[in-house]
Amino acid sequence: MLLVHGFGANRRHWRHNLTSLARVAGVWAIDLLGFGASSKPPSQLQGEIARAGAVRYGFDLWAEQLLAFTSEVIAPAAPATPLHLVGNSIGAVVTLNTARLLIAQGQPPAGVVLIDCAQRTLDDKRAASLGLVERASRPLVKQLVRRRWLLALLFRSLARPAVIRQVLQRAYPSGAHVDAELVALLHGPSTEPGALESFRGFVNLFNDHLAPDLLTQIDGASPGVPVRLLWGAADPWEDPAEARQWAAEHGCIQELVVLPGLGHCPHDEAPELVNPILRSWIAASPERVSP
Predict the structure, then answer these.
(1) Residue 12 lies in a domain
(2) By three-state DSSP, how is residue 265 classified?
(3) Domain holding 244: CATH number?
(4) Count of CB atoms within 10 A of residue 100's CB?
(5) What is the model's pLDDT at position 220?
(6) Is the pLDDT of residue 291 over 50?
(7) Which of 82, 75, 50, 107 has its CA nearest to residue 221?
């Protein structure tokens, strides 16, 4: 199993899951480029002059990172074993994109689990669903968030322990596990050189992959790749109603479980509920050979 964190998090966000999941599979958790303990190179936005060492942060970059990790790390350690991808929030979109690339290589994963997958409502392709004021202000906002000096002010105001705790209290409506350890594991990487650059790269993702488009591509895969959805019913950002719509429209989705009272990160908020579900799904997935 390869576990992929969401925006602003890192591999330690799976600290309450690793031991339990290791009962049924070899488990790896990874820091996406720009987050956690990974390197944080300068951001390269569309239309900017190329800079040595700069990268275009986005779902293709992170999926390529996962492909390299599976081939260079997981496959040698666990040859000829099924590969399962599990992602939370933007990490779920990354896992879908990785599955798409693996399918194209003729090496489909054994399964994909999306935990409160990011719906990316600010993407240009979804602009028509925004309100009139949001649509009217969109061009100005898109210009402002390209400016490093302005983002530096915003980033410094957000990347503070007190603010992080406030966000967590909303993301974890039950309040479980919102403690000093969680705040520290999220705050620490934000103090490292380059953290602003990955933030800049992410907030400028206005035209990138959307989960429904990736699911459509996975629908047509042969052999099929089972996708399962796990959602917190009280997620303040990703509406479970859209997850239900995905489940109704995409044949690759085999199951959707909505957990009452939980928020955006149910794997960390209530691991005692999530871990048994993930273990059962891994056990139920057909075997595929990892790349």
Answers:
(1) yes
(2) coil
(3) 3.40.50.1820
(4) 22
(5) 84
(6) no
(7) 107
